Amino acid sequence: DVQLQASGGGLVQPGGSLRLTCTASGFSFPVFDMTWIRQAPGKELEWVASIIAGRGKTSYGDSVSGRFTISRDNSKNSIYLQMNDLQPDDTAVYYCARGQGIGAYRAGQGTLVTVSS
Fold first, then answer.
1. Do 14 and 76 form a contact (C-beta atoms < 8 A)?
2. How far is residue 51's CA from residue 90's CA, in Å, rounded to a whole number?
3. Phi-psi region of 112 (alpha: psi -120 to 50; beta: other; left: phi over 0)
4. CA dihedral sign of residues 108, 88, 34, 47
């Protein structure tokens, strides 16, 4: 079974940083593009960032570009999301997903990030 376990969320003050980790299992991780998606309370899913297999080219949603960085370590079947200059609007449950874009396949509960003073 495909499993995607996200971790690293928590409470952080505005302007702070967090690093999320997603560990994958149940499929051949290195050949898949991977994505972070988030859902704020009462809002629809929002695509955050994607990283392709192979060369690892990255892409970002407009709301996080310049503040967030997605990366991957194929030896650990993991992707990461370094989040800097966090703002209250970044408060959401963050999910990792297999594939690209908002329709990427999610499997797992996600990790909650709360930005508040």
1. no
2. 20
3. beta
4. positive
Q: How far is residue 63's CA from residue 47's CA, in Å, rounded to a whole number?
A: 10
CA distance 97 to 104: 5
Q: Say which residues have a Cβ less than 8 Å from residue 29's Cβ, sequence separation at least 6.
A: 74, 77
pLDDT in tens, the chain (117 residues): 999 999 999 999 999 999 999 999 999 999 999 999 999 999 999 999 999 998 789 999 999 999 999 999 999 999 999 999 999 999 999 999 999 988 899 988 899 999 999
How far is residue 14's CA from residue 30's CA, in Å, rounded to a whole number?
Answer: 34
For residues 4 and 34, is the Cβ–Cβ distance under 8 A? no
Is residue 28 exposed (0-12), middle (13-18) or buried (19+ Cβ within 10 Å)? exposed
DSSP state of 30: G
